[in-house]
Amino acid sequence: MAKKENFVTPAGTLVFGFIAEPNYEYKDDGEYLASIVLPAKEAKPIIEQIDNWIEESVKEAKKKNPKKKVVKADPPYAESVDEEGEPTGDYIIKFKSPASGTSRRTGKRWERTVPVFDAKRHPVNLDEVNLAPGSKIKIAYSEYFWFATGKAGVKLNLNGVQIIELNSGGQSADAFGFDEEDGVDLAVEEVENGSEEEDYEEDEPLF
Question: Is the pTM of this model over 0.85?
Answer without folding.
Answer: no
